[in-house]
Amino acid sequence: MQPSTSLLTFTRRWGLGVGALYGATFSTGAQSQDLGRARATITTLAAPAMHGRGYVTKGEHRAAHYIRQRFRQLGLRSFTPHYTQSFPIAINTFPGRCALAVDGKPLVPGTDFILEPHSGPGHLSGPVTWLDTLVFTDEPDGQRFLDRSLQGQVLVLRHRDAERIRTLPDAFAQHIAQAAAVVTLVPDKLTASLASQQVTQPRLQVLASRWPARAAQASLQVDARLVPNYLTQNLIGYVPGRIQPDSFLVVSAHYDHLGRMGKNTYFPGANDNASGTALLLELADYYARPENQPAYSVVFMAFGAEEAGLLGSNYYVQHPLFPLERLRFLVNLDLEGTGEEGITVVNGRLLEKPFRVLEQLNSQHRYVASIAARGRAANSDHYPFSERNVPAFFLYTRGGSKAYHDVNDQPQQLSLTAFAGVFHLVIDFFAAVAHQ
Ligand SMILES: [Zn+2]
User: Fold this and answer.
1) Signal peptide span per the entry (predicted)?
2) What residue ranges do the domains of the chain occupy?
3) Topology of the domain comprising 5-91+228-434
């Protein structure tokens, strides 16, 4: 999922007890299935061997290999050789060293600091200097800042000021680019991301509480490499429809994540989005059983490069494998690992009728604690489809673990409270769409 403020402003409406009722087991048609396999999928995808499913040590290729194997075991059909739709991306990567020490004391990558997505490389040591907040309000002070050389210095900005820089004349951003390195102090949590460009200097985010108030000297070693033409992929398999095989329902989930930040730190991405990938695979397992063959064809799209800016789904809508007009509904799954507070449906406010179907199914079966509707949001892979008028919902779970785009997004944090509920909701919803 793409960073958005709304994600961080959950409301707590349900106690923890509700989830226990729904989280324990779920049945896949003929047989009852516990959450063990889903949990194992999440653990595999979030393991160090997958390197955070990013672009260092080919983590995303390893994840793709695993998904391909699972598709093959289920006997899914393929539109392309090996379920693969390849596409190139430009991506900034951090393959080597990632170290920061302040006054000789090392900080811990991932926990105390992270690199900004577009950080450049640099091995240096320099005096610490602050951006004086007065530059925003006092013109002579701003001019003094511009007149002072920043060469060789590590410039420290408060989070709020780093954002306010944009309100100043371009000369300020250009001047700041002359510093040896830029450190932004963030108040509560580190949130990593990816970029397709690179700036010339190292740029870091440091937790404000870990930065010594009177720091005089900082030294850092950052290896950053911009890869202009990295070939990654979407993985797409399907189960043909029994009655109308040229009508398509789609389950999508991105399998990529943020990868590595230096040799010793990686982002597991258990909730984002090993959980959605695991749910996609459980749904594929359901539909692949002969007794559950759907009326319409059901397609499973595991998208790559979502974290790099919805690149896989954008590529897909430009290179569709069947006419987009034949796509009756897409359900995108991203952040499916919790659910103590129920789920949210992006586009639920726009597509009122199908949203009412979801609500009715849920009030009938009590699959999840609550279903909230949201409007349009460009925060995951449903968005490029919505923009092309394909009916699409994005379902994400709420409550539980707050780890997001950080090193704490680990499998053991996930309750999977709404996992089974969403599984059933999607199956019932698809059946309702196909019966219209
Ligand atoms: Zn994400």
Assistant:
1) none
2) 5-91+228-434, 97-222
3) Aminopeptidase (3.40.630)
| 142 alpha carbon – ligand 1 mean position (Å) | 37
108 CA distance to ligand 1 centroid (A)?
A: 22
Rounded to whole angstroms, the Cα distance separating 384 from 318 reads 9
What kind of architecture, by CATH, is found in domain 97-222? 3-Layer(bba) Sandwich (3.50)
pLDDT band for position 31 (50/70/90)? Answer: very low
Quote the percentage of the chain above a pLDDT of 90: 89
* Rounded-to-integer distance, Cα 310 and Cα 121, Å: 26
Is residue 343 within 8 A of residue 422, CB to CB? The reply is yes
Q: What is the distance in A from the centroid of ligand 1 to the CA of 405?
A: 6
Query: For residue 85, how far is its CA from the centre of ligand 1 (angstroms)?
Result: 21
Separation of CA 192 and ligand 1 centre (Å): 9
Buried b (16+ CB within 10 A) or exposed e, 375-393: eebebbbbbbbbeeebbbb
Q: What's the pLDDT tens digit per position in 300-349?
A: 999 999 999 999 999 999 999 999 999 999 999 999 999 999 999 999 99
Whole-number pLDDT of residue 18:
34
Q: How far apart are CA 275 and CA 279, in angstroms?
A: 6
